[in-house]
Each structure stands twice: as structure tokens, then as C-alpha cells.
Amino acid sequence: MHLHLEGSIRPGVACALAARHGVALTEDEVRRRYDYNNFTEFIEAFKWVTSFLREPGDFALLGADVCEQLLQQNVVYAEVTLSVGIMLLRKQDPQANFEALLAATEPFEKRGLRLNWVFDAVRQFGPELALEVVEAARRCASPRIVAFGIGGDELQVHTREFTHVYARAKSCGLHLLMHAGEVGGPEKIREAVEILGVERIGHGIAAIHDPALMELLAKRRIPLEVCPTSNLRTGALGVQLRNPEAVLEQHPLPQLVRRGVSVVISTDDPAMFHATLLGEYEVAAKTGLTEAELVALHRAGFEHAFLPQDERCSYLAKLP
Ligand SMILES: [Zn+2]
Fold first, then answer.
1. I want to staple 17 with a disulfide (CB 3.0 to 4.6 A). Which of 5, 52, 141, 273 is the partner?
2. d(CA 73, CA 89)
């Protein structure tokens, strides 16, 4: 449910993308860049590696590799986030990039993998550029684009500044997402839900600090897309636990689940965080979740997918 295309550039693919633009890179160099201790260092690496995504063919190459990564883990359905905000900043044509991605990824349906897409804006670029992302989604006019979201630096730009952007996205028939409560406080989550009407929260682990908020999320069945390894590698886990030495086993996943909050387990930027979806379930087990709770997490992934009711039910019917 929470997977960034641009965070899924494996070292070999980074080299292939760089080569397309006449830059010689080694996989070791990419691996050295994919090593960070905090959010700022991660963002620097993200900017560097995505600088090789310049034209539709680059997105096609990456899209096909992401499908291979998902199939290797037996994933049957994914909602993939596309940073259209960054495309616009780099003066690219989102529609051309998206069409290349569709052409590269739709053949994987024959192998049992279905994708839908989330068009994502960058919070610190402000509401006007975010509105452009919504307009790009509208122009693409594809039923495969199911949601609009905002990521980036949640400590910048007040949530209410995006009210008209979310209203426009809703009127275009898009579901609504937002990264909130990753490094910010629980108030960021509450604002996203109450001001913008967001339907799923990216990360949201700050909810542990606010029992009334956890109750609200549980009551309204608004899930958190929790990405434990990402939280460790960006330092978000240390921030929320107020302990920079915090380890994965201390991730507050059980606390959220046992308060009745719906959680979907995700990888965020798997190549950049050295994470896999299967690995995240292992991490979830190490935090102390029982087998029954792990199965419930798996079900939640389908229950909260932005799929038509009949398709959701057909996936759910196949689960244990
Ligand atoms: Zn994310």
C-alpha cells in the first residue's frame, strides 16, 4: 500500500539508468550512497538517484524492474506512489512518463500482478505545485490512478494550506492520502484526517502519543501504512520513541494494533532501505505480534486497498 517507485531503484538499475545518460556508475557506489543515519542524508541520496530518471524510457525500465521485485515476493496487488511533484519540479511531462510506466507494467498482469497508482506531491513545494499534481492526474484520465497524496517534509507548510488541493482531488474521483506523524507529532495526523479527509495515513506512528487519536483512527477505520525498517533508517523511530538508539524490536506496531488501529505493513522505499515486504513481516513478528495478528495485518492490506468492492472481495476470498 505504501511503495514509492523512485525508492525502488536497485543498485543494478541505478547503473543502467545512469548509463542511459552517459554516466558511469558501479553498484558499489550506489550501495555506498544508500547508507544513511537520518532523514536529511536519506533525502540527499534520494535526490541523487532520482536525478537519473529523466525521460519516459527511464520510468519504463524502472517500472518493469519494480514488477519483477514484487513478483519475486508473490505480491499480487500493489498501489505504487509516483512522485509527480518531482517530475514537475524537473520540468518533465508527467503524462508521458505515466504512459510509459503503464505500457511497461501492464504486461505483468498476465503473470498475476496488478498495479494501481498514487500521484504524489511534495509538501514543501507548497499548495500550488500540489494542485498541479492533481491536474496532472486529471489529464492522464486513467482508472489506474486511484489516489492523490502528499509526502516530503511534514514539518513545513500548515496542513490547512492544502484544503483546496484535497477538495479538487476528491472532486476528480481520487482517494486521499498523506504522509503524517512520521517525524511530526500526532497533531499532523489529526489535521490530515479532520481538515483534509485523508483516508489512509502514510506512517502515522506518532499516533502512539495520543490515545484519543488512536481511538478516532480505530473508530473511523483509517489505517496507518506502517513501514518499520524505513522508520529505523530515517531516524523516525528514534524520534517517536525519544531514543536515538531505538531498535526495530521496539517498534510500536503492537501498541497500535492492540488499540484497534488498522495497520497495513509496507516497505516505503525498499531498495533504499534494504527492505522487502516479506522481511517487514518478519520484523513485525519480532516486535511481538502473534501469528493471528500478522494474518490480520495481511488481510488489512486488501481491506484498505483502493479497489472496487468485487475485486477486493475476490482477493479476500483467497486469503487464509
Ligand atoms: Zn513514503
1. 52
2. 33
Look up residue 87 and give its amino acid. M
What is the C-alpha separation between 272 and 283, in angstroms, rounded?
Answer: 17
The class that CATH gives domain 3-317 is: alpha beta
Is residue 230 within 8 A of residue 34, CB to CB? The reply is no
Q: How many CB atoms lie within 10 A of CB 114?
A: 18
Cα(114) to centroid(ligand 1), Å: 20
Instruction: Find the helix packing angle between 127-140 and 94-105, rounded to 10°.
Output: 50
* 231 CA to centre of ligand 1 in angstroms: 10
> Bridge partners of 226?
265
Q: For residue 37, is pLDDT > 80?
A: no
Question: How far apart are the CA of 39 and the centre of ligand 1, in A?
Answer: 12
Ligand 1 centroid – CA 203 distance (Å) = 7
Q: Which three cell numbers stand for residue 218?
A: 480505530
The Cα 320–Cα 318 span in angstroms is 7
Name the residue among 83, 78, 79, 66 with its Cα closest to residue 9: 66
Residue 9: HSE in the Cβ half-sphere, 13 Å Cα cutoff: 27
From the CA of 266, how far away is ligand 1's center (Å)?
Answer: 9
* Residue 182 known to be catalytic: yes
- SS3 assignment for 220-286: HCCCEEECHHHHHHHCHHHHHHCCCCCCHHHCCHHHHHHCCCCEEECCECHHHHCCCHHHHHHHHHH
172 neighbors 132 (Cβ within 8 angstroms): no
- CB distance 242 to 205 below 8 Å: no
What's at 161, amino acid-wise? E
* pLDDT single digits (tens) 132-144: 999 999 999 999 9
Q: Of the listed 6, 79, 132, 182, which one is catalytic?
A: 182
Give the pLDDT confidence of 233-244 residue by residue, as tens digits: 999 999 999 999
Whether the pLDDT of residue 40 is over 90: the answer is no
